[in-house]
Design a protein that fits this description.
The complex is a heterodimer of chains A (about 325) and B (about 325).
Chain A: E1 4-8, H1 13-23, E2 30-35, E3 46-50, H2 57-65, E4 69-72, H3 85-104, E5 111-117, H4 144-162, E6 167-173, E7 176-177, H5 184-189, E8 194-197, E9 203-204, E10 207-208, H6 209-221, E11 226-230, E12 236-237, H7 238-244, E13 249-252, H8 254-267, H9 275-283, H10 290-295, H11 304-314, H12 326-332
Parallel strand pairs in A: 1-2, 1-4, 2-3, 4-5, 5-6, 6-11, 7-10, 8-13
Antiparallel strand pairs in A: 9-12
Chain B: H1 2-7, H2 10-26, H3 31-39, H4 44-57, H5 70-87, E1 91-93, E2 104-108, H6 118-129, E3 137-140, H7 150-156, E4 159-161, H8 164-172, E5 176-179, H9 184-187, H10 204-212, E6 216-222, E7 232-233, H11 235-241, E8 247-248, E9 268-271, H12 288-312
Parallel strand pairs in B: 1-9, 2-5, 2-6, 3-4, 3-5
Antiparallel strand pairs in B: 6-9, 7-8
Helix pairs in contact in B: 2-3, 3-4, 5-6, 8-10, 10-12
The chains are: A alpha/beta (about 325), B alpha/beta (about 325).
Chain lengths: ~325, ~325
């Protein structure tokens, strides 16, 4: 059972959310958060340690905290302000490697949880529709992010093999949705008119933000080792998700999708979708969540359908302007009662 | 009341409908909900159509985790019904050999070079002739799931990429699954080799059935070989589009899109007696000999039934 915990990447949304949840748990004696900048939300009893996990300095800090659990939330899925695309590899791979090196020197350590990504399975058309954990690495590594994730998982596996006394758990997250999230995918889903790829209708699993945090907390306390998929049950097609969210869509031939979307993203200040998302929105991806539900014992609050419905209900404030409103259209057509 | 309404002209009905929608929107209803309410005042069939359309547009329909959309399958049903009844005049025999509930694996020969219709006709036979109809799912050639339109169509009507993981997943949910172990070797064989079963892969379908404890129902389809007789193939074209093979038939590509119209052969589908595998222990799937023996048994059953069907057939087209 975790009592003294370090969260890396505590300034990220998920790091801060986890810290907030753990603070409420009286069984936890001590929480520390490592990041390069302080978290934007107010944390009550989390010790903030300003450090870059890419630097060897972490190796000196970590043993001093005498923690039993490390939760690594520092893996970035897409570029952020101050963290350009070029820095992602550094942060994700080198950062994890330095962190593992630091963990080697922490004798009190019992458990490491890494908040990784289901992007390791890639996005392909002809594949198992629900990937189980052991199927990773059977598919081509097509994007840079996929290669990075696969590389850091290899380092992590290696670490787990060398340290049988430390329980190592790799969480493979499907993309999250929630009205408060600022991810490129959420921004994409709330565009006034959503471009889609002509002739493709991907099957998606979008994880509800509440489940994303709660599963992370469950993994912190659990003893399950190895990779665990974190995803809602079932799946939903992009077309139906957009209909539920009442977003009109425009199909674009798929070779033009990426340029069109990055142009649109810049114009709207919504940021550019990363390369993985383009494949994700063409082929989609489904993973099997039975390890999460049965072995880790986490029961998800939302399935794939409910997660999108909840998102649609809460994100409705971001509606299209009045011009497209059917009432206005009928007025213009001269239909009067 | 409906009497008077059906006599109204189309523009009048439309204007009345739009008026109702507007009233609904003014009452603070969602535009789609308003349309649904307004549809209540329309004549029967039209009101039903508006109802379904508005429900679909709002995303209020069911898709299962595998992407099967039953309403969509029902919507395209008439097209396949026409092919079944009129175009190929399919006769199905022994359809009650398909279990009415619970998991089962349908194993069939595979033919029809350009576009194999056997999965759809087996589906139609079960939907039309079985006392307790159910939608079978089917494993589809991987390439179809790379292509636009075809990939989403296949998914909606119950197709999944051909992978043992998908087959096992569906069977564990007690679905009926059709597989075609010949795969591309079956559809891509020349016309001169019609009705000669090709190698049944590595017997993967037997492993799937053993691991999930599903009975196997062999299915023999006669008539499917003549719909697009493959006379030759173009390696160059296949490589250019990434297809497993590019067939040349008497009509395709010579007649352009008209060459895609299948020939109207007469079909016969024989559902054979189910093979119960419950006597085998679960680890029998790892025993190569058991797997190959069962695979061969299924293959022989289908081959025999194919020959029988061919002998009984009086003419290919009539």
């Amino acid at each position: 059972m975790a009592r003294r915990i370090v969260i890396t990447g505590v300034a990220s949304h998920w790091g801060a959310e986890l810290a907030r949840r753990l603070e409420r748990d009286p069984a936890i004696e001590y929480i520390a958060g490592i990041d390069t900048r302080p978290p934007s939300v107010a944390l009550e009893r989390t010790d903030f340690i300003e450090a870059d996990i890419r630097s060897p300095l972490v190796s000196r800090i970590l043993p001093g905290t005498e923690v039993d659990t490390v939760v690594h939330c520092g893996i970035l899925w897409y570029p952020e302000e101050g963290k350009p695309a070029r820095a992602l590899h550094e942060i994700n791979v080198i950062g994890t490697l330095q962190l593992l090196a630091a963990c080697e020197r922490a004798p009190t350590l019992e458990r490491i949880v890494v908040r990784g990504s289901a992007a390791i399975y890639g996005c392909e058309g002809p594949v198992p529709l629900f990937f189980t954990e052991e199927l990773a690495g059977r598919l081509p590594l097509r994007t840079r992010f996929q290669r990075d994730i696969s590389e850091l998982e290899a380092y992590f596996d290696n670490f787990a093999r060398r340290h049988t006394d430390i329980s190592c758990c790799m969480l493979r997250y499907q993309p999250e949705i929630g009205p408060e999230l600022k991810t490129p995918l959420v921004r994409y889903l709330t565009l006034p008119v959503v471009p889609t790829q002509l002739g493709y209708d991907p099957r998606l699993q979008l994880l509800h933000a509440d489940d994303a945090t709660a599963a992370l907390e469950a993994a912190t306390h659990s003893e399950v080792t190895g990779p665990v998929n974190v995803a809602p049950s079932g799946s939903i097609s992009l077309s139906r998700a957009l209909r539920l969210a009442r977003r009109p869509s425009v199909p674009i031939p798929h070779p033009l999708f990426e340029p069109a979307l990055s142009r649109l993203g810049r114009e709207l200040g919504a940021g550019v979708l990363y390369g993985d998302a383009v494949r994700f929105l063409r082929f989609g991806r489904g993973v099997d969540n039975s390890r999460l539900r049965k072995e880790m014992g986490y029961e998800l609050g939302f399935d794939a359908d409910a997660a999108v419905r909840d998102f649609a209900a809460k994100a409705s404030g971001l509606r299209v302007g009045p011009a497209l409103h059917p009432g206005a259209v009928l007025d213009r057509l001269g239909v009067t009662s | 009341m409906s009497q008077t309404e059906t006599r109204e002209s189309a523009p009048e009905v439309l204007a009345a409908f739009l008026r109702q929608v507007r009233l609904g929107v003014e009452d603070g209803l969602d535009p789609m909900a308003a349309a649904e309410r307004a549809a209540g005042a329309l004549p029967g069939r039209l009101s039903w159509a508006v109802d379904v359309t508005s429900r679909r547009l709002r995303g209020e329909y069911r898709e299962d985790g595998w992407g099967f959309d039953e309403e969509f399958a029902e919507a395209v049903y008439p097209v396949f019904d026409f092919l079944y009844e009129v175009w190929w005049r399919v006769e199905a025999e022994g359809v009650t050999n398909v279990p009415a509930h619970g998991r089962a694996l349908l194993v069939s020969n595979h033919a029809g070079s350009l576009f194999p219709f056997d999965a759809s006709m087996i589906t139609m036979a079960i939907m039309k002739e079985h006392p307790l109809p159910r939608w079978p799912r089917f494993l589809v050639l991987d390439w179809a799931f790379v292509l636009p339109f075809l990939s989403s169509f296949m998914r909606r009507v119950g197709g999944v990429p051909a992978s043992p993981h998908n087959a096992m997943g569906l069977l564990r949910e007690d679905e009926l699954v059709s597989v075609f172990p010949e795969g591309v070797k079956g559809t891509g064989k020349p016309f001169s080799e019609r009705y000669r079963l090709q190698r049944f892969g590595r017997g993967g379908f037997v492993e799937v059935a053993l691991r999930t404890g599903s009975p196997i129902v062999p299915v023999a389809v006669v008539g499917s070989e003549e719909i697009y007789p493959k006379l030759a193939e173009s390696r160059l074209a296949a490589r250019a589009i990434g297809a497993p093979f590019a067939p040349i038939t008497p009509t395709f590509p010579w007649l352009g899109p008209a060459g895609l119209v299948p020939l109207p052969s007469r079909w016969h589908i024989q559902f054979c007696d189910p093979i119960d595998l419950s006597a085998y222990p679960p680890d029998a799937a790892d025993d190569r000999r058991v797997v190959f023996d069962l695979s061969e048994q299924v293959r022989e059953t289908i081959q025999e039934n194919l020959y029988e069907g061919l002998i009984k057939r009086r003419s290919v087209f009539l």
